[in-house]
Write a structure and sequence with these properties.
The complex is a heterodimer. By secondary structure, chain A is of the alpha/beta class. Helices cover 35% and strands 21% of the residues of chain A. The longest helix of chain B has 17 residues. The chains are: A alpha/beta, B alpha/beta.
């Protein structure tokens, strides 16, 4: 297998990075770096780390090329080389500008998730209200991995704050069973792509074929995360097996409309990609003051909103707040 | 004599960011459902809870709504909810009373 961290791989241009992944020869993993500059989204770092950890766990060979680019310091501070046990000759400066990040963290259980979320806000230097969408996103994505992925390395998470664009980029990767197997437990899916699209529909969960889910799973988690990205006019990427769904940015002048069916969103969709055994999610979230998490939740509610006839029926009740 | 109301403090059970589904499930099974079964009113007090997740609230109340129907909302009350918590609860209460949208491939069932 080979994974190559390129000059640039953010969610907008992540396709080339995914296509460059070579899953053949599973007995060894080689990690290479663009020699001039490496600037990548946390999803790329999380994927690289999760794959490396999986190989380490199986005591298989990892060849980590020497990173030459100056930006290798960023990968070092993200904890990539330490996690893989790969030595690099790097002398870190104490105060580098790219200081607002969450280094690679492996989360295998609820207690670790709770601790991670606790530490998240001060590390990113956001205000508590700005952090709501970020905490929400990380919590739901990691919880998905813990509950459904059966990933031998757990969830591998990292995040980066970009001051210039007031954006936090989050990457969560696992090397578990993948979405097709999870959704396929309850739905007849013929491909990874079909499973990915189903997983994004609210009310669909692999734990039951009953629409609306079980008492433990509503099948709404990924729909919520996609909606958070969409309401912020940002990207969201979901990659599993040989397929990737990418929510594209909603243009500034276009009204935000959330859709239950991911096909109705402005998106790109690729099948036949190199096979990723597991799931990787990348999401960007704006943290500008104008972003209001409550407004976003109200937008999401509209997707579920009952029509007038249902509301005036005697059976419908509102939650009572006292 | 058994009090007619049971108040559960969410902050002490689940913290300022209520997201642990396991704790939500435990509260539902060990406290909420037994109290409702005994005819009591249950008050879920979200004081000091800054935010919560849909999956937490779903694990907390969806099966209560499923078992008892929407009428249970007459005696399952939500107290001291900020805007975020309130919005999440309203989403869960809404979708538990409405069939979810049909998946793209029909019902897709095995």
């Amino acid at each position: 297998m080979q994974i190559s961290l390129p000059n640039s791989a953010f969610l907008g241009n992540i396709d080339a990075f995914l296509r460059s992944f070579d899953p053949s020869d599973p007995g060894r993993l080689r990690i290479t770096f663009n020699p001039n500059w490496v600037s990548v989204h946390p999803i790329a770092i999380s994927m690289t780390a999760s794959l490396g950890l999986h190989m380490k766990g199986q005591k298989k060979e990892i060849i980590c090329d020497t990173a030459l680019a100056k930006s290798k310091n960023y990968l070092e501070r993200m904890g990539l080389f330490a996690l893989l046990g790969a030595r690099q000759k790097i002398k870190l400066q104490e105060h580098e500008p790219a200081g607002r990040f969450i280094p690679l963290t492996v989360i295998k259980g609820q207690d670790e998730l709770e601790k991670f979320i606790e530490d998240l806000v001060p590390l990113l230097h956001t205000t508590p209200s700005q952090a709501e969408a970020i905490k929400y996103t990380v919590s739901e994505l990691v919880r998905n991995v813990i509950e459904h992925a059966k990933s031998p390395v757990g969830a591998v998470v990292c995040a980066q704050f970009f001051k210039k664009t007031s954006r936090v980029s989050i990457g969560v990767a696992d090397v578990g069973v993948g979405i097709r197997e999870t959704i396929g437990a309850s739905y007849a899916v013929k491909s990874d792509g079909e499973a990915i699209k189903l997983a994004l529909v609210p009310g669909v969960t692999g734990t039951t074929a009953r629409p609306g889910g079980t008492e433990a799973n509503a099948g709404a988690g990924l729909f919520f995360i996609k909606s958070i990205a969409q309401a912020n006019r940002n990207f969201f990427v979901l990659y599993s097996g040989d397929s990737m769904y990418k929510l594209l940015k909603t243009p500034a002048q276009t009204r935000i409309n959330l859709h239950a069916d991911p096909e109705d969103d402005r998106h790109s969709f690729l099948e036949g990609l190199p096979y990723w055994q597991g799931t990787a999610v990348g999401v960007d979230i704006s943290v500008a003051d104008s972003q209001n998490f409550v407004e976003l939740l109200n937008l999401i509610r509209k997707v579920y909103r009952l029509d007038v006839r249902e509301k005036i029926s005697q059976k419908y009740k509102k939650a009572r707040f006292i | 004599m058994i009090a007619s109301e049971l108040t559960i403090g969410m902050h002490s059970e689940a913290g300022a960011f209520a997201q642990d589904k396991d704790k939500a499930r435990q509260m539902r099974l060990e406290r909420i459902l037994p109290a409702l079964k005994n005819g009591r009113t249950v008050i879920l007090d979200f004081e000091k809870v800054d935010a919560t997740t849909q999956s937490f609230v779903h694990a907390l109340i969806s099966d209560v709504l499923r078992q008892y129907g929407p009428d249970v909302l007459e005696r399952l009350l939500f107290k001291n909810c900020n805007e975020v918590v309130r919005a999440v609860i309203e989403i869960v209460v809404d979708y538990m009373q409405k069939p979810p949208p049909v998946p793209p491939n029909g019902n897709g069932l095995h």
